[in-house]
From TrEMBL:
PROSITE patterns: TLDC (PS51886). It comes from the Eukaryota. Residues 294-486 form the TLDc domain. It holds the Pfam family TLD. This is TLDc domain-containing protein. SMART domains: TLDc (SM00584).
Length: 542
């Protein structure tokens, strides 16, 4: 009797602890409703087949943003993803999950945990799914602990499959969250070659003849040691495991909102016009997602809306400036981004001829800069935080180094002639010092100058494009885009600012004759008198 009550008390304390962990994420009420809806009335346990159906993914004919073809093994991987989640985390002892086992499994997937544990959970899921799909993989886990050491290596194709698996879970989560898009959007896989090349160049011993501008990542046979890959992942995409936690939570939440579970587990071909419109810009879905993976803030959510135009406000009003659309130069730039008090993402696409090897090749690359509080017309550096990005062909992020605060410089000559004791550069710059900026865009938006990171103590060191070298590089600008990431509030503030500017402009253009007492005091009378007799003696008012 005593042993029985002791066992019951032990189970009860474990249940309270598990429920406390689930409650810290805010999911406990949802878990209780989901369990009561799916549980068998007689056994009071969740059937395994119901959970497998809950997490089952079956996207028909997914399309790919990348020019390379999707491997045939990826749909097989997705088919085994749902059952792998159940087998790995929702472990049952008697053919069905009781309440304690259900909450324990949810905490393993979505509970609060360290970054290393969250990545370990994601890699464990990927390894289990690949193994269940019958695909080769060279990963080994030392134990079943949530934070054990992972040994082995990944191929470039493994990195592509891992990223696409995470994207699919994120796509599914965003689609389920948007009731209008549920069951209507087809899975569109982004181009992640820039992320894969980043992992390859950072983790593998690549031969010096690797051409990042003309490289088929699917054909790379290099091995990426798991230790180096984890270091790269922590730095470059710290929010990648969130794709898995959001997917699990959304699928369980969807049980309460959808009567027909099959509608949430499959999707058919839908309207892809929104995706195509996004890909016509420099900021494609793959590039926007890569930038969002580097962030853990509200800005990340704003960028993700650019990846999923059907979600929320989508792209409406977020593209503030595009040089091919609004015109080049600082004047056109300021007329479109002036008054925007919120985070801004600026992308610069440039090209430079490379005459090495006896032949001339034009190399194109894209860099980016993220500012927290918009642009201001100042003749000195300003800003409190920000990041630089090498976006294409290889992705890297360079956040603040914490040594200096020369984040942004944006200076436009005033309309009138103003004496300047020392000439200040006219243009937009990021990092470095005055006259020795790390990135400098001239006032005509014709050329961009990139200097070595040794000149910059504001942003972390690294090359903004492959084979940058130590000497400054001047390139021709092809396109510039500026995206507003401050949400509706920042856009409304900018609209009010533009209305005031238009009102002041109209007032300055008009002269109200009623403000003058008579014709003799009007400016027209004074001008006519001066033209008719400029040498006439006139009384001076004192």
């Amino acid at each position: 009797m005593g042993a029985s009550s002791s066992t019951e008390q032990k189970v009860s304390s474990e249940q309270r602890e598990l429920e406390s962990i689930a409650a810290s994420t805010g999911a406990l009420p949802m878990l209780k409703k989901t369990f009561s809806k799916l549980a068998d009335p007689q056994s009071n346990a969740l059937p395994i087949n119901a959970l497998q159906q809950c997490f089952h993914i079956n996207y028909k004919s997914p399309v790919c943003e990348a020019p390379t073809k999707m491997p045939g093994s990826f749909p097989v991987l997705l088919e085994n993803l749902g059952s792998s989640i159940v087998d790995l985390f929702l472990v049952s002892q008697k053919g069905g999950l009781n309440w304690v086992e259900f909450v324990r499994g949810y905490n393993k997937c979505c509970g609060r945990m360290s970054a290393s544990m969250s990545f370990n959970t994601l890699f464990r899921l990927y390894a289990a799914t690949v193994t269940k799909a019958g695909l080769p993989l060279k990963l080994e886990f030392e134990s079943d602990d949530a934070d054990c050491k992972i040994s082995g290596s990944l191929l470039a194709s493994d990195v592509t499959m891992l990223l696409w698996m995470c994207w699919t879970m994120l796509w599914d989560y965003r689609t389920l969250r948007n009731s209008k898009a549920k069951g209507k959007e087809n899975l569109c896989l982004p181009d992640v070659s820039h992320l894969v090349l980043s992992a390859v160049t950072s983790c593998a011993e690549v031969a010096g003849d690797l051409n990042a501008w003309d490289c088929d990542v699917s054909a790379l046979e290099v091995e990426l040691p798991m230790g180096k890959f984890l270091t790269w992942a922590f730095k470059t995409m710290p929010s990648l495991p969130d794709c898995f936690t959001q997917f699990v939570h959304a699928r369980l939440q969807n049980i309460l909102t959808s009567e027909d579970e099959s509608t949430s587990s499959s999707s058919s071909l839908g309207n892809m016009s929104s995706t195509k419109s996004c890909n016509s810009n420099l900021l494609t879905s793959g590039r926007a997602w890569a930038i969002s993976l580097t962030l853990r803030s509200t800005i990340s959510e704003e960028i993700l809306q650019l990846c999923f135009p059907s979600d929320g406000d989508g792209m409406d009003g977020k593209l503030l400036y595009q040089s091919s659309l609004h015109g080049r130069g600082l004047n056109r730039f300021w007329s479109n981004i002036g008054g925007y008090k919120g985070p801004l993402l600026m992308l610069v696409s440039a090209s430079k001829e490379d005459a090495r090897g006896g032949s001339t090749n034009v190399k194109k690359w894209i860099i980016g800069a993220l500012t927290e509080n918009g642009f201001e017309n100042k003749d000195l550096f300003y800003g409190s935080s920000g990041s630089l990005y090498a976006i294409s062909p290889v992705f890297h992020v360079f956040p603040s180094a914490g040594k200096e605060k020369n984040f942004v410089y944006s200076h436009l000559h005033p309309a009138g002639k103003v004496y300047e004791r020392q000439h200040k550069p006219v243009g937009i710059a990021f990092g470095g010092t005055m006259g020795n900026e790390r990135v400098f865009v001239d006032e005509d938006f014709a050329r961009v100058t990139i200097r070595h990171h040794a000149t910059d103590k504001t942003y972390q060191p690294g090359s903004l494009f492959p084979d940058q070298g130590f000497l400054p590089v001047e390139a021709l600008i092809s396109e510039i885009e500026v995206w507003g990431l401050g949400g509706k509030a920042a856009k409304e503030v900018q609209s009010s600012y533009k209305k005031r500017e238009e009102l002041f402009t109209e007032q300055r253009r008009k002269v109200d004759l009623k403000t003058f007492g008579s014709w003799d005091e009007s400016p027209e009378k004074m001008m006519m008198d001066m033209i008719s007799d400029p040498n006439a003696v006139r009384r001076e008012d004192r």
